[in-house]
Amino acid sequence: MKLNKLKIGKLIAKVPIIQGGMAVRVSTAPLAAAVANEGAIGLIAGSGLKVEELKAEIRKARELSKGIIGVNIMVAVQEFKELVNAAISEGIDLIVAGAGFSRDLFTLGKESGTEVVPIVSSVKLAKISEKMGASAIIVEGKEAGGHLGTDKAMKPLVEKIVKAVKIPVIAAGGIINGKDIAEIIKLGADGVQMGSRFVASEECEVDDSFKQLYINAKQEDSVLINSPVGLPGRALKNDFYNRLENEEVTTGKSCDYLCLKKCSHSFCIMKSLIKAQEGNMEEGLVFAGEKAHLIEKVLPVKDIITNLVSEARKYLGGESEDE
């Protein structure tokens, strides 16, 4: 069995891997460009950025890479449409959208010729996405880091959805190494989306303490929290999580960010994610996938992708389409 290219509309990625778009300021231009330079698809996280900031990140990524660059924008954010339009105006290759479902996105994608890839967690939503013109879909299970749209495991979802749609299916959640990639390809998926593995890369612009939390994590450190977004979120235990559990983290009804369309105000998700990116573990929430504890080293993106591809081919028993 071969490790094939990933085809999304008019885009063709040599390596069938999409690097997850992790906010806030975890997936930025240097990381996305480094991934794209290796033949995979790099994503910039638009959530938590202002319109001009997102434009600047896209321009920077274009300067660093001629590969495929996309954005991931949460439907739940207040400026969703403005951020989408900003990305389109910069000629972004594809738009990935999760934490909600936007019918308007498909219209914007069609009008601009931009590939639209929604994140789904059900057969029903997969079929609706295909009918509305999605170029591909990302099927995310409960094993993923960040905000979750389901409590169901990823692999059974992928098996069902692969049979239900004809557009490319990309699996996400709990994929950390080449063996995981091979298992997903064998289920019929066209590619994978991986976030956590790329956090522990030299090009990821988070504080070293953020990366070390991944490296030092144990299996039991993967936990679920109730996010103000209105969805559960998968994170790693740290000082902030302990304070959250002890109800020591509070916020009023006023907000400095106004980042979400709807917010429970249980705590400030924007502030906590920014603090984590800066390395403040007492005030910072660190999202991570269920298998982040398996990551052992911080490596350059080039080495990460080389290792993933080599291991995936070994378990698939075949070569790539180019060989």
TrEMBL record:
SUPFAM superfamilies listed in its UniProt record: Inosine monophosphate dehydrogenase (IMPDH)
Origin: domain of life: Bacteria
Pfam families per UniProt: NMO (PF03060)
MF terms (GO), sorted A to Z: dioxygenase activity; nitronate monooxygenase activity
Keywords: Dioxygenase, Flavoprotein, FMN, Oxidoreductase
InterPro entries: Aldolase_TIM, NMO
The protein's role, per its UniProt record: Nitronate monooxygenase that uses molecular oxygen to catalyze the oxidative denitrification of alkyl nitronates. Acts on propionate 3-nitronate (P3N), the presumed physiological substrate. Probably functions in the detoxification of P3N, a metabolic poison produced by plants and fungi as a defense mechanism.
Designated name of the protein: Probable nitronate monooxygenase
